[in-house]
Each structure stands twice: as structure tokens, then as C-alpha cells.
Amino acid sequence: MSERTLVLIKPDAVRRGLVGEVLGRFERKGLTIEAMNLRSVDTALADEHYAEHLEQPWYPGLRDFITSGPLVALVLSGDQAISVVRGLLGATDGRKAAAGTIRGDYSLSNQQNLAHASDSPESAAREIKIWFPEA
Ligand SMILES: Nc1ncnc2c1ncn2[C@@H]1O[C@H](COP(=O)(O)OP(=O)(O)OP(=O)(O)O)[C@@H](O)[C@H]1O
């Protein structure tokens, strides 16, 4: 079934010049880019997106990171896009993510892990509304 998912190519990927590499993997997989923009994130937007993590001891560090420079927000669509994109990203911690995944190939961190992707239809709907209210 075709699904939409919200992806953030995080500030570490932008700084490292890996936007094209990450986007290319999504495109070559066959996913469709439905919407995309490069934007800065303020703390209010960071807190809304990461609402479920606000109480975590590591959240202040994550907020500093996600607001540290521009990121690329996009909506991808395709058959089972939510789980397919999570599979392409690999495990949250880049040190543990399997080789061949985006995080496994390019990240050595559990925070600066290149990209975010929605983890369920409910979070995709919530997150698409946050980042692309017009969509
Ligand atoms: N222990 C931690 N220390 C620092 N940052 C963390 C830690 N755990 C998670 N994070 C950061 O919070 C984000 C969200 O964590 P979550 O557990 O939801 O992982 P995820 O679902 O794989 O990642 P995402 O939601 O970004 O796709 C991670 O992508 C990472 O940037």
C-alpha cells in the first residue's frame, strides 16, 4: 500500500555534504519526493517534532544539534514507504547500524545520525502536518 513518510536530512548531513548521497539512495530505491525544502529549525519547532523525547536527559543536546544549522525536510511516498525508509536508514546508533544502511555507512554517533524518518502511520501524519502544514 502506498504510504507517505516524513524525512529530515539532519544538519550533520548538510554540513558534511551528504544531502545528495542520502537523497540519491531514496530516489534509487524508487521512492517519490512529494515535497522538500531546506530550512532552519527554531527550538519551538524542535520541541514539537521531538515531543516524545522532551524529558530525556539527552534531549537538550539533541535540540542544540537539530537547531545548529539548516536541514532538509521532505515527504517521500511509495509502497510501504514508512518501513522501507527506516530500513534504508538502519539502526538509530550509527555505530551499531548495519553496513549498507545510510547510518551504517556514514555515521559514528547515536545523535548525529544523518536522518530522521517517521516510525508509524500515526507519526507520519503528525510529522507531515508539522513540517508541511499546507500538504
Ligand atoms: N542516547 C541518545 N543520545 C543522544 N541522542 C539520542 C539518543 N537516543 C536517540 N537520540 C537522538 O534522538 C533521535 C530520536 O531517537 P529515537 O529513539 O526516536 O530514534 P530513531 O527513531 O531511530 O530516530 P529518528 O526518530 O530520528 O528517526 C535519534 O535519531 C537521535 O538523533
TrEMBL record:
Location of the protein in the cell: Cytoplasm
Chief site of localization: cytoplasm
Cofactor(s) it depends on: Mg(2+)
Assigned EC number: 2.7.4.6
Nucleoside diphosphate kinase-like domain sequence ranges: 2-135
UniProt superkingdom: Bacteria
One MF annotation (Gene Ontology) recorded for this entry: kinase activity
Reaction(s) catalysed (UniProt annotation): a ribonucleoside 5'-diphosphate + ATP = a ribonucleoside 5'-triphosphate + ADP; a 2'-deoxyribonucleoside 5'-diphosphate + ATP = a 2'-deoxyribonucleoside 5'-triphosphate + ADP
Entries under CDD domains matching the protein: NDPk_I
Keywords, in A-Z order: ATP-binding, Cytoplasm, Kinase, Magnesium, Metal-binding, Nucleotide metabolism, Nucleotide-binding, Phosphoprotein, Transferase
SMART domains xrefs: NDK
Binding locations of ATP: 10, 86, 92, 103, 113
Keyword Nucleotide-binding in annotation: yes
Function: Major role in the synthesis of nucleoside triphosphates other than ATP. The ATP gamma phosphate is transferred to the NDP beta phosphate via a ping-pong mechanism, using a phosphorylated active-site intermediate.
HAMAP family: NDP_kinase
Protein name: Nucleoside diphosphate kinase
Source species of the chain: Cryptosporangium minutisporangium
